[in-house]
Design a protein that fits this description.
ten-stranded antiparallel β-sheet; mainly beta; 9 helices; 817 residues
């Protein structure tokens, strides 16, 4: 995470923007037309008439029954030292006027080294060849004929505009050289091959002119290099339900939005069952769309007729990560437990290693290398593993096999903490086997379980099209939640004991309750305890990494009516950073708290540090209302001390308690705090009575704040979604609502005095890490920093005005992105 500075102009509006670099003045690279890289109807050109005809040494007839007579219907390659490379292609050896060409198209190709957008031109021997047609990627038609409107100059004369070529082009055509602009093409991986089709069509110009098609090469140049992207990578592996058996043809009606390409998402697909000769979309980075799956009996090209969980997952992830990227290696009907076969997780150098396991490691490495080679960066967030149908008879041994697989994947990819999400088999399968999957998820560090509850199969094993979409969406939420959210209102389970609910391990005292809407709270599912007997604890493990975290947030419902008898004490609820497993029981206990927050049994809100509770004074909660509590902490000072601040919002009345200021602030030492959040085991929760929902770890900064308003807020830092003239980042900095156009008067305004102008404001306690600056200018060209000092709770900036006829002031805000 990094800081970024944004500027706001007082008295004058200024829009700042960023542009990418356009390099459209670069020279073209010349690719000569030779038989070595040119085919007809997909077949290499062959010598049909060597030495036959003046200047002809190689030609390819259009008709397989041709007798070899020279005339219309074939391409031939001519030797001519006056032309680039010593030769060119001619699709008519005749010299008659107004020739009408009926040949099949030549297919040539160019390899484009870097990722980016390229301009492509086709080069011909003369600008009067107006029956020539060319097209990128498929055969051309009449609409693609080379005419004066797209004529370019390849011989460096004055008109039409000349084409700059690199040193590979010697310009041996003289005044008869010409070219056609074919358009632009964008590559997604380095060294991508682009097919170009050349043909001669019926003459479209004066029939008294020799219109023979004479083609001589391709020119290409990098028009725009893309800015590097960060790829959020998600791995998928396993057998048929990982590969996917959802039917693309059934993505209609309510599922129609899943049918098309998801342009921001990409997939790199490997399946050793794919035997089609066309490998143009196999083991290559492609735009994500349904069809990267190979069901038994399918022998066509990719994309196929089926799809997997990546389609639903990408829909969930795309609003939150800009470039969701999937590496998928899967094949149906494969096992984990057979040495030397399928997924057997032996060392890569062992003869026992399964070929699919080896393919997974190699394909993942290759795909990641290609991301880096394209100049992009990436983060691998985890692997989704769905396999076990073939091994379901091995209940006793599967747990050890799966544990070994997890260890092996982490070792062989060099990712020792790689998150591992285990997909539950369909509920038609043996519950004992599914319980083994669950037990591995709750005992192996940084492993998770994805429930298949409520999902339908079409023959007892494979999930239906709708179920595959839903399972994919659950996976998207699970991948997205690996950092910050324990969210109970994703409808994946019914009311009952809290088990298999988003990685939570609990005793039977905790239940998932269906809750009613109230005020801002929309209702859904919440975890908690109902009744008056004792306290109960539950744990969400492996919330790491928390390196960017500055706060925790949760919704609390202190129950009264229907939750206790009036003689009992009020609710006691706690959400806590779990610092150490002191009791070595893999369960949270209150004594293991680093920091926590919630509701005290005295009826007040509280911060808990270790075993010590610090209730607020004067801010009591009311029963049977939903509250959102937010606990924020500062960076440590040199001595390791931090400040904790607790904020509260009544979701039933939409009121911020204490006017939005902290209801409790507390200074704690590094030892009290639980030291580095990176070392925390996860989140622990305690409930005597009442409910907790939507528990979040919240990173600092603009991106997290913007996510709070998703999906309505669409603009970035410099955007102005409510069109009130105030950039979103300034609404963030001063605690304003970016969707309510009534906030301009609440910004700090300059006050002009006889000798100076001052701008004073109180920084928000909710944004302790903002850095405010002020600059002033006489002419909007040169800017000078203003002097800023702390004045009690205020920050006061001073700008000299003596002798100045006018002064422009701009305020800068440095924020976490």
């Amino acid at each position: 995470m990094s800081r970024s500075s944004f500027i706001f102009i007082c008295l004058l509006s200024l829009v700042l923007g960023w542009t990418g670099g356009i390099t459209n003045a670069a020279p073209y690279t010349y690719v000569d037309a030779t038989p070595a890289n040119t085919t007809l109807n997909g077949a290499a050109l062959v010598d049909r008439n060597a030495g036959g005809g003046t200047g002809n040494y190689l030609n390819q007839f259009n008709s397989p029954n041709s007798s070899g007579t020279i005339g219309d219907g074939f391409w031939n390659y001519r030797n001519d030292p006056l032309f680039e490379g010593g030769g060119y292609f001619d699709c008519d050896s005749g010299t008659g006027l107004g020739d009408r060409e009926t040949t099949a198209p030549l297919r040539t190709s160019v390899t484009l080294g870097a990722v980016g957008t390229y301009e492509i031109v086709a080069i011909f021997t003369r600008t009067s060849n107006r029956d020539i047609a060319a097209r990128i990627g498929s055969p051309p038609g009449a609409a693609h004929v080379f005419t004066t409107t797209n004529a370019l100059n390849a011989d460096q004369s004055l008109l039409p505009p000349d084409l700059p070529f690199d040193a590979s082009y010697a310009n041996k055509r003289g005044s008869n050289a010409g070219a056609a602009h074919l358009g632009q093409v964008t590559t997604t991986v380095a060294n991508q091959s682009i097919a170009i089709h050349i043909n001669g069509l019926e003459s479209t110009a004066d029939l008294t002119i020799d219109e023979r098609t004479q083609y001589d090469g391709i020119g290409f140049r990098l028009y725009e290099a893309p800015e590097p992207k960060h790829r959020d990578v998600f791995l998928i592996a396993g057998q048929s339900n990982a590969d996917g058996r959802g039917l693309k043809a059934e993505l209609i009606g309510s599922l129609a939005s899943y049918a098309g390409p998801q342009l921001a998402a990409r997939i790199h697909y490997t399946n050793t069952a794919y035997t089609n000769a066309d490998k143009s979309r196999y083991k290559k980075w492609m735009t994500l769309e349904p069809g990267y799956s190979v069901a038994p009996g399918y022998s066509g090209t990719l994309p196929s007729t089926t799809f997997g969980v990546e389609i639903g997952a990408a829909k969930v992830l795309s609003p939150h990560v800009p470039n969701p990227t999937f590496i998928k290696v899967a094949r149906g009907g494969t096992a984990l437990g057979n040495p030397g076969a399928d997924w057997y997780p032996a060392p890569l150098t062992s003869s026992n290693v399964g070929p699919l396991y080896k393919a997974f490691i190699e394909s993942t490495r290759l795909a990641l290398e290609e991301i880096a080679a394209a100049g992009d960066t990436y983060t691998v967030h985890g692997i989704y593993w769905h396999q076990g149908e073939t091994d379901s008879g091995n209940v006793a041994g599967y747990g050890a096999l799966l544990t070994t697989l997890i260890e092996s994947v982490r070792r062989d990819l060099g990712m020792p903490k790689l998150r591992f999400i285990i997909g539950e088999l369909a509920n038609t399968k043996d519950p004992a086997f599914r319980n083994v999957q669950w037990q591995i998820a709750r005992t192996v560090p940084n492993a998770a379980f994805l429930s298949s509850q409520g999902l339908v199969t079409f023959e007892g094993t494979h999930f239906t099209t709708a179920a595959m979409i839903t399972f994919g969406e659950r996976l998207g939420h699970a991948f997205r939640g690996d950092r910050d959210t324990l969210n109970f209102d994703i409808p994946t389970c019914a009311t009952g004991p809290l088990d298999r609910q988003d990685e939570c391990a609990a005793n039977s005292g905790i239940t998932v309750e269906t809750t009613a809407g109230q005020g801002e709270y929309s209702g859904g599912q919440a975890a908690g305890h109902k009744g008056s007997s004792g306290s109960y604890f539950f744990t969400r493990r492996h919330m790491l990494p928390l390196d960017d975290a500055r706060s925790m947030q949760a919704d609390f419902f202190p129950g009264d009516a229907g939750y206790d008898n009036e003689a009992d004490a009020d609710s006691s609820l706690l959400v806590a950073g779990w610092a150490a497993d002191a009791e070595n029981d893999v369960l949270f206990s209150e004594a293991e708290t680093a920091i926590g927050f919630g509701m005290h049994h005295t009826g007040t809100f509280r911060i808990q540090v270790g075993a010590n509770a610090y209730p607020t004074n004067g801010f009591n909660y009311q029963t049977d209302r939903w509250y959102r509590l937010t606990l924020r902490w500062s960076e440590p000072d040199p001595a390791g001390n931090r400040m904790l601040h607790l904020f509260a919002r009544d979701l039933s009345t939409s009121v911020e308690l204490n006017g939005g200021a902290a209801i409790l602030s507390l200074a704690v030492s590094a030892n009290d705090f639980g030291t580095d959040p990176l070392r925390w085991l996860g989140i622990g929760c305690r409930s005597t009575r009442g409910l907790m929902d939507n528990i979040r770890i919240v990173p600092p900064g603009f991106a997290s704040w913007m996510d709070h308003f998703h999906p309505t807020l669409e603009g970035g830092p410099g955007g102005d979604d409510d069109r009130d003239g105030i950039a979103n980042v300034l609404e963030f900095a001063f605690g304003l609502n970016p969707l309510r156009p009534d906030s301009s008067s609440t910004l700090p305004q300059p006050i002009f005095g006889p000798a100076a102008a001052t701008v004073a404001f109180t920084p928000l306690p909710t944004q302790p890490e903002l850095v405010h600056t002020l600059e002033w200018s006489r002419n909007l060209a040169s800017w000078q920093p203003a002097n800023g000092v702390a004045d009690g709770a205020l920050v006061r900036f001073t700008v000299p005005t003596i002798g100045e006829s006018r002064v422009f002031i701009r305020q800068g805000v440095e924020v976490w992105k």
